[in-house]
UniProtKB/TrEMBL annotation:
One GO molecular-function entry: metal ion binding
Protein source organism: Cladocopium goreaui
Protein name (database record): L-ascorbate peroxidase 3
Family the UniProt entry places it in: Belongs to the peroxidase family.
Residues covered by the PDZ domain: 46-108
Keyword Oxidoreductase attributed: yes
Length: 390
């Protein structure tokens, strides 16, 4: 999982940091409780550290200029350890983040300067606010609510409005008056997917991550949690702040399920995808299902809708699909309890597309690799100045 490149570990006193900086994970909490607590009240705490002459602060932090917060790597003694001894209820832990020092917030360079220069430090901190905790919280949510598929779809539709010119992933869908929020293709996504992500967004956005980065990280965790490849996408997507930043129009951006291979190409080619990548991306229908009340289609593609494997391609090739008209009057294909959309069947009709269905059905590792490459391109298309670490 991403974020492996190293940030700059700063011992605020200039002393050497210890080697192991893994946070203490909240493995005891039940269900999908967030690490550090569900409410702001549980997570936020205040600390006052007073440095007397020559005393060392005793905090190693994970400094990176692009961040808004300073994650604590270690409490290494000094004034910080003294505080921890005297204030067991407000103990500073590795993995907590410094949000504010003496009124300075949102600028880590200035926060760091304050820590070094001032002798009295009034700090606001948040528990368990690092990238590792974010991954933990997402994985817990996905396992607890079985919501991996809709999180993948949320992220694909955020990135999928890119048409080669505009519409890069910017989480505009969360803004009620945006085009993305109202698009038929996104029915159910803002209401359901965003409610699921709500508590995690409240904890991490914007302190650690943007909404748009959160959505893609959530999808990456979902893919991995459901048995798929480990995919690392870069960070730095900028959130839309108003509906004026939403896609200029809905037309021609997201694929329609009742259409054929010509339509698929007309949608995916402007985004920069060729036949192999179109087929690879469609394999994501190995997970999740269609909902009558959202898209008007009904049913799951594969027997295990929570397993990210190549069964979509195998089933597409080997099952006997019968055309049916569902209760919403839409044409789809059925075999037992499984279904395929007309757009899925289009992958079989066209020899150039079918070639890749055959290859991916035969070789799951090949599909994982091609899916991973196409997914990264999808998620980074049109984005400016992405970076390797959060
Ligand atoms: C090729 C054209 C595509 C069409 C026409 C299409 C269409 C659809 C439709 C109609 C649904 C059902 C939505 C609902 O009723 O809740 C759906 C679900 C889904 N799609 Fe696609 N899709 C396409 C490509 C993709 C791609 C490229 C991905 C990801 C890489 C993807 C991922 C998903 C997932 C994971 C779900 C399940 C969502 C859930 O269970 O809530 N789809 N898609």
């Amino acid at each position: 999982m991403g974020n492996t490149a190293c940030c700059q570990t700063e011992a605020i006193d200039g002393s050497e940091p210890p080697v192991d900086a893994k946070p203490i994970l909240d493995s005891t909490s039940p269900g999908n409780t967030l690490a550090g607590g569900d409410t702001e009240q549980e997570r936020l705490y205040e600390v006052t550290l007073v440095k007397t002459d020559g005393s060392k602060l005793g905090l190693d932090v994970d400094y990176m200029a692009e961040r808004k917060v300073l994650p604590i790597m270690h409490v290494t003694g000094g004034v910080a350890e003294e505080w921890n001894r005297r204030n067991p209820m407000k103990k500073m832990h590795s993995g907590d983040c410094i949000l504010e020092v003496n009124g300075i917030t949102g600028n880590v360079a200035e926060i760091l300067e304050k820590c070094k220069a001032d002798s009295v430090l009034n700090m606001k901190l948040c528990r368990c606010l690092t990238y590792e905790y974010l991954l933990e919280d997402l994985e817990k949510l996905i396992r607890h609510k079985n919501c991996g598929p809709i999180l993948i779809r949320l992220s694909w539709h955020d990135a999928g409005v890119f048409n080669g010119v505009d519409g890069c992933p910017n989480a505009a869908m969360r803004l009620k008056d945006s085009a993305e929020h109202k698009m038929d293709a996104n029915a159910g996504l803002p209401q359901i997917a965003l409610s699921l992500l709500g508590p995690i967004a409240a904890k991490y956005v914007p302190r650690l991550i943007s909404h748009a980065d959160l959505w893609v990280v959530a999808a990456n965790v979902a893919i991995k949690t459901m048995g798929g490849p480990t995919i690392t996408t870069r960070y730095g997507r900028v959130d839309a702040l108003s509906a004026s930043e939403s896609a200029s129009s809905a037309s021609g951006r997201l694929p329609e399920a009742d259409k054929d291979e010509h339509h698929l190409r007309s949608i995916f080619h402007p985004k920069g995808f060729e036949d192999k990548e179109i087929v690879a991306l469609c394999g994501a229908h190995s997970v999740g299902s269609c909902h009558l009340e959202r898209s008007g289609y009904d049913g799951a593609w594969t027997d295990n809708k929570l397993k990210f494997d190549n069964s979509y391609f195998k089933d597409l090739l080997h099952k006997q699909w019968q055309e049916e008209t569902n209760s919403k009057g839409k044409k789809q294909f059925r075999c037992g309890s499984a279904m395929m959309l007309p757009s899925d069947m289009a992958l079989l009709k066209d020899p150039s597309l079918k070639r890749y269905v055959l290859e991916f059905a035969e070789d799951e590792n090949l599909w994982f690799s091609e899916f991973g490459k196409a997914w990264i391109r999808l998620q980074e298309a049109g984005c400016q100045e992405l970076r390797d670490i959060l």
